[in-house]
Amino acid sequence: MNYHVLTLFPEMILEGMNTSIIGRAMAKGLLTLEAVNIRDYSVTGNGRIDDYPYGGGAGMVMQAEPVYRAYCDLTGKIGYAPRVIYLTPQGKVFDQKMAQDLAGERDLIFLCGHYEGIDERVLEEIATDFISIGDYVLTGGELPAMVVMDAVSRMIPGVLSNQESGQYESFQDGLLEYPQYSRPEEWRGKKVPPVLLSGHHGNVDRWRRDQSLLRTLRVRPELLSDAELDKKDIKYLEALLWGEAEETPDENTKEFLIKLLAMKKKT
């Protein structure tokens, strides 16, 4: 995977990404990262790339021409026009499915805005994907770009030292990840669940799946509506509903479970 970032702060991208797992993957040649400074393509030649917005209002807007020049120079070097991801609160909220989709690309271009944004005309010309990492506003697109690159990189074969780590984690199957434990067996009076010490892989897998269902129900119940549930999953959720499992849900959760189970049984 080759990442190309159009930004006003290339050092922020390079320093932020060249560490830990992602840094090691770049050292191995599994990933490459290029940060292009949009200021180098200033129309006036003095590094200025912003101007006042038409119609008035606070702040400044990044001009279309410097962004377009940087894009054209970059795609000329790449040899084709890859997908261009513009990081913006107005975009589609990023999720694991989007990370998997983007991981299938050979090259990705990230466009990082600042100030009050980027002239809409150049976005219409070059941007293919508008992505948000949440319903809040940041000072620029660099942090969101790094978030997306980190998530996408985990999907690239060889990036993780243990591929299982990327295969069985939060959101991979539409559910939140199950609780994790390590040594010692008892810490401050809290013990590791006995099933994890049993050595019975089938029971361990079932416990983990049930815990994923339970955690998702507690924290992000809406995810269960789109998750693929098998007969054993349905049986566990029914046990929760009728108070036959380790936790008794409140009335609102019971109401949700009744509707969820009715929907899943129809499908």
Task: Describe what is shown at a glance.
By secondary structure, the protein is of the alpha/beta class. The protein has 10 helices and 9 strands.
Q: Structural class per helix/strand content? A: alpha/beta
User: How many independent structural domains?
Assistant: 2
Average residue-wise pLDDT: 94
Inertia-based shape: elongated
State the helicity in percent bands. Answer: 40-55%
Radius of gyration: 23 Å
How many helices in DSSP terms?
10
Within CATH, the superfamily of the largest domain carries the name: SPOUT methyltransferase, trefoil knot domain
Mind sketching the topology for me?
Blueprint: E1 2-7, H1 10-17, H2 20-27, E2 32-37, E3 50-51, E4 61-62, H3 64-78, E5 83-93, H4 96-102, E6 107-111, H5 120-126, E7 129-132, H6 142-153, H7 163-167, E8 186-187, E9 190-191, H8 201-219, H9 231-241, H10 251-266
Parallel strand pairs: 1-2, 1-6, 5-6, 5-7
Antiparallel strand pairs: 3-4, 8-9
Helix pairs in contact: 1-6, 3-5, 4-6, 9-10
